[in-house]
Design brief:
heterodimer, A: mainly alpha, Ferritin, elongated, B: alpha/beta, Rossmann fold, eight-stranded mixed β-sheet, two-stranded antiparallel sheet
Chain lengths: 169, 278
């Protein structure tokens, strides 16, 4: 008999990783257009991480009939999937440190989501797989913490524009 | 273009990369449109995006459908003309608050009145962003970030939903760029509505109005069925805080043109043209 709980969970996981990959790719393109190359490269790396995890989930889901949900039919703790970077947190002049801090928060949000499923699901398979995913997100967060610790501080960095808007005076 | 296979949202994106500022709310609108198109399994061949001028009006280039980046404020005029000439097409017009409520303000009120079966998405960031941050018709009175209005514009901002209602729009919704999935649902509903559907999107400008990131804490979903009574809707739109989202008002009304005005024979247009020949 098909495990509907697991199928629903994997559909959510696929959406979570797909959205994270799409958003990071989109942000990398936007940062490239605004000559913020360090942050663009970092977001591309995050997109690649999400793509990697997506491939793993897709492999697990192979042969299963997953529910076909519309974008607004998924059940997330917030408006968007946990690993998706919010637009409100972006700025074209953001530093690599700010980008990494943001990505770290996203990884922690994903870990929290998976951990919650792992501890609350009545289905043993779902709980076990969610636990594995939570551990994976935790390892991503630890790696980001390590990278952040190595990154030199730049107290001079600021987001404000360094040129006034064009005005006929 | 073959739509036999179920397309995903990303399949509706063109190869042209958006050049909006990272964090711009318009990315969210773009994603919501493609998600709605995927959910409705809309044919790319039968869909047209039409815009005016401004940051938001770049959007048609980013969608893998037909599109027209028109003249400032004239997106609605072009879109209505196309829909009347080709009622088989799904027509969406979009633009910013300056394009839609100032330069194109007259087209907006008459589009609401006329009720052609199409969707209009106004991406409102309360500022002229492409020209580097001047006050628009929806800018708050005391917004003093521009040297052109150092003490704020000093005039009351438009209330787009109230304006749309007073002008006769039969479908009025509001979305927020921080919630692209709810916006996608509203866009899908707007496209499926038989008549002129107006979606007002609060779409933050991270560069010239960074204070709009506070919207996330203020925006709230209305969470009630859409009003169907214009009097009640008028009270709502005149007295609300302007931050509630959802489908706010919906009524059924005859669309334009009436069927009696549509040429029935294939040669009708030819005969009409011939009557003007000298």
């Amino acid at each position: 008999m098909a495990n509907e709980t697991l199928a629903g969970f994997l559909a959510h996981s696929i959406e979570l990783e797909s959205e994270a990959r799409e958003r990071y790719t989109e942000l990398a393109d936007a940062m490239t257009g605004h000559h913020n190359r360090d942050v663009a490269a970092f977001f591309l790396r995050m997109a690649e991480e999400a793509r990697h995890h997506l491939a793993e989930v897709a492999q697990l889901a192979q042969g299963m009939l997953l529910p076909q949900l519309k974008a607004w039919e998924f059940d997330w703790p917030e408006a968007e999937p946990p690993e998706t970077a919010s637009y409100e947190d972006m700025h074209y002049r953001m530093s690599l440190r700010q980008a990494m801090t943001l990505a770290l928060a996203n990884e922690r949000a994903a870990e929290s989501y998976y951990r919650n499923v792992a501890t609350s699901s009545d289905d043993q398979d779902t709980a076990r797989i969610a636990g594995v995913f939570a551990d994976e997100e935790l390892s991503h967060a630890a790696e980001l913490e390590r990278l952040l610790a190595q990154l030199p501080e730049n107290p001079l960095h600021q987001l404000e524009e360094d040129d006034d808007p064009h005005m006929p005076e | 273009m073959n739509n036999a296979v179920q397309l995903k949202a990303k399949d509706y994106k063109s190869a042209v990369k958006p050049i909006w500022c990272p964090g711009c709310g318009h990315f969210s609108v773009f994603n919501a449109i493609t998600k709605a198109m995927a959910a409705l399994a809309i044919s790319k061949d039968d869909t047209v995006m039409i815009s005016g001028i401004g940051c938001s009006s770049r959007l048609p280039a980013y969608v893998d459908s037909y599109g027209f980046h028109g003249v400032h404020g004239r997106g609605l005029a072009i879109a209505q003309g196309l829909k009347v000439a080709r009622p088989d097409l799904t027509v969406m017009a979009m633009g910013g608050d300056g394009d839609g409520f100032s330069i194109g303000g007259n087209h907006f009120i008459h589009a609401c009145r006329r009720n052609v079966n199409m969707t209009y998405i106004a991406m409102d960031n309360e500022v002229y962003g492409m020209t580097k941050g001047q006050a628009s018709p929806t800018t708050p009175m005391d917004w003093d970030h521009s040297k052109l209005t150092p003490h704020g514009p000093g005039v009351r901002p438009f209330k787009p939903a109230a304006l749309a209602l007073a002008s006769g729009a039969p479908w009025i919704g509001r979305a927020y760029s921080g919630n692209p999935n709810q916006m996608a649902k509203l866009i899908a509903q707007a496209v499926e509505f038989e008549g002129f559907s107006f979606l007002h999107v609060m779409s933050q400008c991270i560069t010239f109005c960074p204070e709009q990131t506070d919207w996330k804490a203020i925006v709230h979903e209305r969470g009630e069925p859409a009003l169907t009574d214009a009097d009640e809707a008028a009270k709502l739109f005149l007295h609300e805080d302007g931050f509630q989202t959802g489908l706010l008002y919906s009524e059924r009304r005859a669309t334009w043109p009436p069927e009696s005005a549509v040429p029935q024979s294939e040669d009708a247009l030819g005969q009409l043209a011939a009557s003007f020949r000298v």
